[in-house]
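INPUT
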Amino acid sequence: MTSLSHGLGSSVGRKLVVAVTGLALLGFVLGHMVGNLQLFLGQDALNGYAALIKSKPALLWGARLGLLAFVGAHVVLALELAAENKAARPHGYAAPGRIQSTPNARSMTLTGLMILAFVIYHLAHLTWGVTHPADHALVQTLADGTTRPDVFSAVVLGFQDPLVAGAYLVAMLLLGLHIGHGIQSVFQSLGLTTSSSRGTFAKLGAGLTWLIVIGNCAMPVAVLAGVITLPEGVA
Amino acid sequence: MNLDSKIPSGPVQDAWDKHKFDMKLVNPANKRKFKVLMVGTGLAGGSAAASLAELGYEVDAFCFQDSPRRAHSIAAQGGINAAKNYQNDGDSVWRLFYDTVKGGDFRSREANVYRLAQVSANIIDQCVAQGVPFAREYGGQLANRSFGGAQVSRTFYARGQTGQQLLLGCYAGLARQIDAGNVTMHTRKEMLDVVVVDGLARGILTRDLVTGKIERWAGDAVVLATGGYANVFHLSTNAIGCNVTAAFRAYKRGAGFANPCYTQIHPTCIPVHGEQQSKLTLMSESLRNDGRVWVPKATDETRPPGDIPEHERDYYLERKYPSFGNLSPRDIASRSAKEACDEGRGVGPGKRGVYLDFRDAIARVGEDTIRERYGNLFDMYERITDESPYKVPMRIYPAPHYTMGGLWVDYNLQSTIPGLHVIGEANFSDHGANRLGASALMQGLADGYFVLPATIGHYFATHGPDKQPVDTDHPDFARVEDDVRGRIKKLMGVNGTRSPASFHRELGRLMWDKCGMARNARGLTEALQRIPELREEFWHDVRVLGSGESLNMMLEEAGRVADFMEFAEIMCRDALTREESCGGHFREEHQTEDGEALRNDADFTHVAVWEHTGEDSTPNRHTEALDFPNVHLATRSYK
Amino acid sequence: MNITVRVWRQEGPAATGHLETIEATDVSADSSFLEMLDLVNERLISAGREPIAFDHDCREGICGMCSLVIDGVPHGPRRATTTCQLHMRSFTDGATITIEPFRAKAFGVLRDLVVDRSGFDRIIQAGGYASVNTGGAPDANAIPIGKGEADLAMDAAACIGCGACVAACPNASAMLFTAAKVAHYGHLPQGEPERDRRVTRMVETMDAEGFGNCRNYYECEAACPKEIPVDFIAELNRDFRRATVQGGSR
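OUTPUT
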């Protein structure tokens, strides 16, 4: 019998890893969105949530390292498979055709890489404070005099810049394209799809995709539209 | 020519068991010392190669296709017969034996046919064990249908793709032996000659169809499983690549060719549409279970079929053969269609077609049921003709389909050249003058799975010890290779003006006219005069471009056509000498008053075997007498 | 009808090829696509030029020998139809038709439109069978198999091994072919004893042959002349997961 590592090294095995890590990342994206949607609840809610996360450094770093590993495996294996795919057809068609595959399915590598670039930008923006150091340095002073990072204001300030908000919106669209194919693909690669469940998985994929795209886009849109504004005292 | 059939003495029921016991065995440890060269890997060759390898023989197998799973066995649609009596409708080995002998119009060997019926049940067991997905009932048991004029339901099927599934089954077994290293498979290699050393078949010559390389192969036995020769008619239901070359080359090296005039014309094929046509497509005979065959009564009918009222239609099969009706055997159904068209009552372009009408069946069981039964066939028909059989009747016409004749073999499936065995459609043995539906798959697999693996051991055991070792450096190999190279060089060197295909078309038309569904002395004599002329033209005017040292499909075709050109002559000669009508061979001079075939048992209850006597010399006709102690000679009647 | 074909010409495996434009006049709309090529070839021969090499044999849609990518689609524009069963009436008069060989690293071009598909055979040799020897099989009705499962096995077994799935897949993946073979046995009790070994060895061979990886585009399913569904790929993935990650199906 083939060993586990041998099995996972095969085309189907690596696809399995891409699927599982993709699914985990999708879980993160969902959780991340639910947490961030507290933007709509106001400064106290969001900043409190951020402080709560930061108060458990072991957990936070565990999650960060786990995420990093998942992203790493997902990206590296997907790129490796993509390179093999390219090599599998050294001579393309002079008159290429397409029957039923979707353009988003066929651009998974491209959308994936663009999402990766966005993630780095996103981290630079709100986690590392590289792009907007002043916003990142903002703090909220609580009633007892203690301070905590004012994530709320940093986000709102960022999204008030149409360029930044635009980048986030574009990224969410790309994410939508990526997971639009990715979610139903996960079920196929895990071997869970059957002729009867195929439609259901496709609908589930589409539903989740729309949920994530709409949920994430709601935040920059709300800021741009002036629905969410800066708290008093933050310039 | 020694035509000892080696039929075991005693009652026919015990012959095969007795023979298996009487044959000598090869010690298991010695089996790997014997190498078998298997030419052709369809149902017969594929199953034989796998089974021989399982026994421990070393097998080298060859096919001209790019994979054994492309062999034309794949195209059989309807099913495979077996005397299982799963339906409790009175079937038995004896009944299958009886039906096959009678269906073959008393021109087959009783003992062979009995053996075929006997092992038929094992074939189904074997195929199921291998994972062939035969049709099943809801309870999980195998389904059966009645097929090709049988009055019992003994046909096993896998949708309309039985041949495909059986071939994939035997190919899977072959693949397993290739994986195990017991079979070496050579694809895209065409056999071009047999090497006979000291009277024993010891090797073959092949041409690699990709590189053009001529290669020598030595072995302890050669098995030809190279199919039939229906493509002598150019337009047939056979695959484009099917050819007589291997069998014909063996004939020229001394193997007798038996009953070449026995060709089967299948009644349900899509009619010819025009000059550019390359092939005729079979519509499964199972369609006749529900379809009704008819032509207009009037010769000048021009209305579309739906407008022709009931009383102006002639359901001629039901009229002439009330008890079998639309399910009459193939030869009878084909000839009746020809008669109707000869009378000017044919339908469709050129008036060479008859209707196969599902109107009544659709009214009786509903369109959905008909779709379930024949959906894939109806779709195929619509793709080809652009007409929907649900709405208008199909048009069908007979087409060459199968050849009962083939290289003569004895009970051990050995030809007149010791060591050269012939199995499947390539031999002549089991179908007599007409083959029943769903019996070709049965015979191919019977030969390959059960008969040859038993009999070839006897050959090795009796010829092994004292045989000189022969390798490909033997001068006889060099001689044969010179012949092969000479032929290729000659073909490439003519440099005329006509393509090989155009000659093939012309030969085919001639054969169809003169030696097709109905034959007469005048036509056959004309053909015998015309064929040598045509051959002469071929060798002076054929054009083969390119080189012999690369993939050259034109060269392949030219070689095959060249052999058909010579073979056609023997076929006509055989048809001319057989002064009777039997099965697929209908001589117009020999018919009853109402147009039925008239056998001449007194003079022709024998196998005609042709012996090559040299280039430009008339072949000798030998006979093997046939004996019917069990199924008594009677006139077939399907009325 | 009159058409123009742009057809791939390549003298041998190592040669570089090119698209050649040939006018085909007076083609019968009732002739099949391959009969159109026959006609083109006849005329090439008359002009003293070598005919176009293409694979074909049964010409009734079952042997799987015919191939061709016609205007970017394996076996041409008509669904569930092999090239040999495609008829010229599917094209418009005056059309220009591009004809290319199946393209994949694993399917080397041998000449013109002829490619080497022996990789498929090696995949089958790696386990596409039930290991039973001739003789000694139990009675065919000894193991009942429900009609539903038998029908599914037949759906998978309908594969003709033509390679259109590979040709259509943007990644030249052979997953649909391999999956069909795995699923054929997967739905039968006869295939059960070798289930794990079969799927792992066949996937291993498929990879080694240089086919690409499946990315669930489902282009293969649409190109398949026998309409083999991609559900069988999910079944292969499931079997493979159980055989490797979960340490066996039993």
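end of record. Residues 160 and 376 of chain B are 7 Å apart (CA to CA).
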